[in-house]
Amino acid sequence: MATRAVVSRVDSGHGQAAVAAGSLSRRERGGVRGYRLSIDPSPLTPTLSPAGRGSPAVPRLEAAPISRRLAALVIILASLSATSPAAAAYPERPVTIVVPFAPGGANDIVVREIQQPLAEALGQPIVIENRGGAGGSVGYSYVARARPDGYTLLMAATGFVVNPSLYDKVQYDPLADFEHVTELSTFPVIYTVRPDMGVNTLQEFVGYAKARPGALNYSTPGAGTLPHLATELLKLHTGINMVHIPYAGAAPAAQALLSNTVDVASISITVAKPQLGVGAMKGLAVSGSERWPELPDVPTVGEAGVPAALADTWQGIMAPVGTPKEIIERLAAALTGVMRRPDVRERLLHAGFHATGRGPEAFHRRIVEELPKWKNVIQQARITAQ
């Protein structure tokens, strides 16, 4: 049986005691905040000792007759199964969602679309706070250090798993510092060319590029963005060689294609769709696993013969590690319910997003899978933050 304990922690900054009950497994950075778990030679006497100088003392459970030890164990197990009053009443005040980018970007659009529906589901206002910088790392690290009480959440995106490999150092650990609550939405990249290039499919383009190694260039919304990484992934799996030209956003990246400055644009569907509609661009493939509903004639990379180049951008809600399980479950239920609403799904689709609403386990699997995937692409393509 796994060892479990009730932990009392004193916040030395405020002189207030906070009590948390739960398992001590699932922590990749040893111990409970501020303490080490030690096990007394007597098998039923778990103890907590201070982890360092200045830590408040925690009484040690002394050896006792077997009947007293059994009684103590029963109390501990009962405490673990009970829901804390704070978790049961959650939320009792407004909940803040930190968006780690400036207003107006993809993350901001999605979170503001769900802001009111989520407030209705939770019964409390939702406050949006933008904290941009370093490709999102400023906001990620801010939430990683927030109190794990469910009142400060993170609106994360694909950069969350990319940044640890892209930057020399980031102040957060994607796995150890966060609870992955719910994936909200995804959207693919679309590879576009000008009609006068004379290619109609992705495979025709691959042949065209192979006949001109290093002569073609492509635009993206910036170095290290998903369109950049997705195109490098495509290059790795097709053997083509193109030069990356980063721009400050999807709109100028699209304009570079229209003005004949670049040969290919790897951009969002939202930006490309108007140009596709008037015939100024030709869509070769989308990087997602399904065709985009509003562009039914554009195949996926898998359908175009390069299934290994599957890539899409995601957005999702996370909480600081240590947030009570009951609060995570409450948030996940509310968020997945919001993402199932037909009105929310339709509005997001028209804005260029596919509502997913995947719960904690599926969201966590994505994080675990994408960390090594994008690390490999970054290393092989020698991508650096610019």
Task: Give the topology.
Elements: E1 4-11, E2 16-23, E3 35-39, E4 46-50, H1 66-81, H2 85-89, E5 95-99, H3 106-122, E6 126-130, H4 137-144, E7 152-157, H5 159-166, E8 178-193, H6 202-210, E9 216-220, H7 226-238, E10 242-246, H8 250-258, E11 264-268, H9 269-277, E12 282-286, E13 312-320, H10 325-340, H11 342-351, E14 354-358, H12 360-381
Parallel strand pairs: 5-6, 5-7, 9-10, 9-11
Antiparallel strand pairs: 1-2, 3-4, 7-13, 8-11, 8-12, 8-13, 8-14
Describe what this molecule looks like in 3D.
This protein has two domains: 4-82, no CATH class; 87-386, 3-Layer(aba) Sandwich (D-Maltodextrin-Binding Protein, domain 2). The longest helix is centred in the C-terminal third of the chain and has 22 residues, at 360-381. It has helices at 66-81, 85-89, 106-122, 137-144, 159-166, 202-210, 226-238, 250-258, 269-277, 325-340, 342-351, 360-381, and strands at residues 4-11, 16-23, 35-39, 46-50, 95-99, 126-130, 152-157, 178-193, 216-220, 242-246, 264-268, 282-286, 312-320, 354-358. Helices cover 37% and strands 24% of the residues. Strand 9, helix 7 (226-238) and strand 10 (242-246) form a beta-alpha-beta unit. Helix 7 crosses helix 12. The strands form three sheets. Strands 5, 6, 7, 8, 9, 10, 11, 12, 13 and 14 form a ten-stranded mixed β-sheet that branches. Strands 1-2 form a two-stranded antiparallel sheet. A two-stranded antiparallel ribbon has the order 3-4. The radius of gyration is 25 Å and the shape is globular. Mean pLDDT is 82; it is low at 1-65. The chain is of the alpha/beta class and 386 residues long.
